[in-house]
């Protein structure tokens, strides 16, 4: 699923992205970065309500292509800047995590990957 399709499904605002045609193969929803680190897949989208530089550090370490901040959370400029430097797309949506994950799953994006 393309990142711009995900943004449309979640009615999300793209805060930083060099390529909205990024292909996302699976998704992970968590506020615990230790759980995210256990979810190793390619071309992953992370959904989280944790607004912290640690999210971007974890995304970089795990080769996560994009992060969606849920529940209307908007990351600060420092987090957006860090994501831009690392080539990680950042989106924000007002949807709660459960609903956002459900919408993506219903649209065909799973946690299984390829």
Q: How do the helices and strands follow one another from N- to C-terminus? A: HEEHEHEHEH
Kindly, what is the distance between the CA atoms of the first and last residues, rounded to a whole number of angstroms? 12 Å
The tally of helices reads 5
Largest sheet: 5 strands, mixed
CATH architecture: 3-Layer(aba) Sandwich
The whole-number mean of residue pLDDT values reads 92
Number of strands: 5
What number of structural domains do the residues give?
A: 1
Indicate the structural class.
Answer: alpha/beta
Computed CA radius of gyration, to the nearest angstrom: 12 Å
The helix content is 25-40%
CATH class: Alpha Beta
Q: Would you give an account of this structure?
A:
The model has no long low-confidence stretch (mean pLDDT 92). This protein has a five-stranded mixed sheet, with helices on both faces. It has one domain (3-106): Udp-n-acetylmuramoylalanyl-d-glutamate--2,6- Diaminopimelate Ligase, Chain: A, domain 1 (3-Layer(aba) Sandwich). It is built from five helices and five strands, in the order H-E-E-H-E-H-E-H-E-H. The chain is of the alpha/beta class.
